[in-house]
Design goal:
Blueprint: E1 2-4, E2 10-12, E3 19-25, E4 33-40, H1 51-67, E5 72-80, E6 90-93, H2 102-118, E7 122-123, E8 132-153, E9 156-159, E10 162-163, E11 169-170, E12 173-176, E13 182-204, E14 214-225, H3 230-241, E15 251-257
Length: 267
């Protein structure tokens, strides 16, 4: 038996060789494996499919699997005390703490700037102080997590011999179980997950003279999935943070994007 992982790698299961699992596992939330289809790959299966039909069935299953790719999911928690007079205010970015990634941070800042402009804010003019200060940071790390997958085994049953009405004797023989493959347990597997974070704060400098800027919006967005370059993940995290901005105070939501188009999936 072979298990096809989300990335397409084949994972052999010791002692089995009869079936392929075509599956799409949601790695983001640790949910159970979604089994798409089970196809018999040998000519002695209960269904006794021809080799050509088996190949056609496999191709159709692969097409179905490609057409229903897992969505890109971000979990977002946000808190806000957004001022009523913020519309039209200017914004600027605080200098990043990690100066070794200035160009990368500037790329992410441009994504945030686009979203702030959609909310009616505008970049501060050169040399002019900004009312809203943007403090942001991004990070990612790899984690190894264990999960289980069900294993099904093709069973054979013995059909006893018999004598017909004419006295002819027919010997017994082994045949595939008419009830199909049987569940024999779970297999524990390890999966490397990339956990990506975006932390964003907006600080309002407008207040009594001498007072420190106060946080009027803060949000944390997290994505868990297969290892991938951080610049391909951050755009989704930024969009997730500003989905329904500023939203209710203390809001926690899961934002899902279509993997093929990037569109937000309505909740």
């Amino acid at each position: 038996m072979y298990l096809l992982s989300h990335s397409g790698a084949r994972c052999p299961v010791p002692g089995q060789k009869a079936y392929f699992w075509l599956c799409d596992r949601n790695l983001l939330s640790g949910q159970n494996v979604l089994i798409i289809m089970l196809i018999a790959l040998h000519t002695h299966s209960f269904f006794r499919l021809s080799r050509a039909r088996l190949v056609c069935g496999l191709l159709v299953s692969l097409a179905l699997l490609a057409g229903c790719a897992s969505p890109i999911t971000a979990r977002v928690s946000s808190f806000q005390q957004w001022p009523a007079d913020a519309l039209g205010s200017s914004f600027g970015f605080l200098a990043p703490a990690d100066h070794t990634r200035e160009l990368e941070q500037a790329s992410y800042a441009s994504l945030v700037a686009v979203e702030l402009a959609k909310q009616g804010l505008q970049p501060a003019a050169s040399g002019q102080p900004a009312r809203m200060l943007v403090d942001m940071s991004v990070s990612s790390q790899l984690e190894n997590r264990s999960y289980s997958r069900p294993v099904y085994q093709d069973q054979y049953v013995f059909r006893p011999g018999f004598r017909d009405a004419a006295g002819r004797i027919y010997p017994g023989y082994w045949m595939p179980d008419p009830f199909g493959p049987r569940y024999v347990g779970n297999q524990q597997l390890m999966q490397t997950i990339q956990v990506s974070h975006l932390r964003l704060r907006l600080l309002d400098t407008q207040g009594p003279a001498g007072s420190s800027p106060r946080t009027v919006f803060q949000s944390n967005a997290t994505h868990e999935g297969n290892p991938s370059p951080l610049p391909t993940v951050v755009p989704y995290l930024v969009r997730a943070v500003f989905e329904g901005f500023p939203g209710a105070n203390g809001r926690v939501q899961v934002i899902r994007f279509k993997a093929d188009t990037g569109e937000v999936i309505p909740q």
